[in-house]
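> forwarded from #structure-qc
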């Protein structure tokens, strides 16, 4: 296994100065000031008149994904807690997108960055990490991701960022330009500014925790649906209320799905969870890409199919309202995987039947003819008798 010999200086030594931390925080804050908010796109679906669908396009961040927000928060959290100082190596366990964004911020403040990732991570993500000066440390067994990242940080004398533990606490869920506050600000002028549901995939669990907490803090009636994928532990942990569930097979959908219930996942703020088959995720990705006339990533397909299930449920009872989900990243990162027929065939994935069913629903508003695991948190129902 590849190791890295770099060791930073003693944090207590004279080379470390508080002024450097101040400069690093200022650089990250200045980057945020230069960055406009991401677009909230309204997807026009004539057959679903009365149900407004919005897509928060996180692919337009400088590093191309939702994880840009998380990486910024994690760096500020680590800097302000004294974990990162001048020349401190930073290590992260990632399926790719978070590592791309963290490499960007590490380069910005001048510290070395190392990403521990599964060997199956897309070549496009590896190239992006290296573009920002990061080092890619690839391992064969994704279940060893956390242990190897911690061990590498110890060998380097660096800081293990550990997004899966610290995502939910690094972001200010009360506001301060978090994604939830951004969504509601952008909806203010819309016909139905308080959405019935926000749909979010489960990766670290940090974004769903931020959204769920914000909804309660602002006393909004909006509910949170978390979409999980095959070969992930989140759904089983939620449905059984047992955090000890694990999944031995790695998720095929990068950025979402984990082999364990991550510490940042907060099930108490989740109102409903769905488990989306991988082939259905790819189908929804393809359908949405055609309607947007640009490619989206796989986790966006997971989100979009769960949103369509909610829209179908609303249509059945003649309910009007609005729904929001995220475009997590661009499909350009997955040209050699999700958009490659040979890659899909080798993994036994056939999205065609799911595509037909989803396209029929969007064209006709007839009930969505797809069944998958779906569970509601009875403790969070706003109207238990409904």
């Amino acid at each position: 296994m590849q190791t890295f010999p770099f060791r930073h200086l003693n944090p207590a030594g004279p080379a470390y100065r508080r002024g450097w931390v101040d400069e690093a925080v200022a650089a990250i804050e200045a980057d945020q000031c230069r960055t406009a908010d991401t677009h909230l796109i309204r997807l026009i679906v004539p057959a679903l008149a009365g149900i407004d669908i919005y897509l928060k396009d996180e692919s337009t961040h400088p590093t191309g994904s939702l994880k840009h927000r998380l990486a910024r928060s994690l760096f500020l959290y680590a800097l302000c807690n004294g974990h990162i100082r001048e020349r401190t190596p930073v290590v992260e366990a990632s399926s790719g997108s978070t590592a791309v964004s963290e490499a960007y911020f590490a380069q910005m403040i001048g510290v070395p960055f190392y990403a521990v990732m599964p060997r199956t991570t897309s070549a496009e993500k590896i190239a992006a990490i290296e573009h920002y000066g990061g080092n890619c440390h690839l391992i064969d067994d994704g279940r060893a991701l956390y242990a190897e990242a911690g061990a590498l940080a110890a060998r380097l004398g660096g800081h293990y960022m550990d997004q899966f533990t610290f995502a939910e606490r690094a972001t200010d869920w009360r506001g301060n330009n978090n994604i939830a506050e951004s969504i509601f600000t952008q909806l203010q002028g819309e016909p139905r500014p308080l959405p019935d549901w926000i749909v979010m995939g489960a990766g670290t669990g940090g974004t769903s925790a931020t959204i769920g907490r914000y909804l309660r803090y602002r006393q909004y009636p909006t509910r949170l649906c978390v979409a999980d994928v095959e070969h992930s532990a989140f759904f089983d942990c939620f449905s059984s209320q047992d955090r000890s569930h694990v999944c031995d097979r790695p998720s095929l959908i990068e950025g979402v799905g984990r082999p364990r219930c991550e510490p940042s996942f907060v099930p108490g703020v989740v109102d409903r969870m769905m488990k989306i088959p991988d082939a259905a995720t790819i189908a929804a990705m393809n359908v949405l890409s055609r309607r947007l006339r640009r490619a989206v990533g796989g986790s966006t397909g997971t989100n979009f199919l769960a949103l369509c299930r909610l829209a179908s449920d609303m249509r059945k009872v003649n309910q009007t309202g609005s729904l929001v989900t995220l475009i997590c990243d661009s499909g350009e990162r997955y040209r050699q995987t999700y958009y490659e027929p040979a890659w899909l065939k080798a993994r036994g994935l056939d999205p065609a039947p799911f595509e037909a069913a989803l396209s029929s629903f969007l064209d006709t508003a007839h009930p969505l003819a797809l069944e998958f695991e779906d569970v509601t948190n009875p403790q969070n129902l706003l109207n238990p008798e409904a």
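QC bot note: The longest strand covers residues 51-57. Residues 1-15, 382-386 have pLDDT under 50 and may be disordered.
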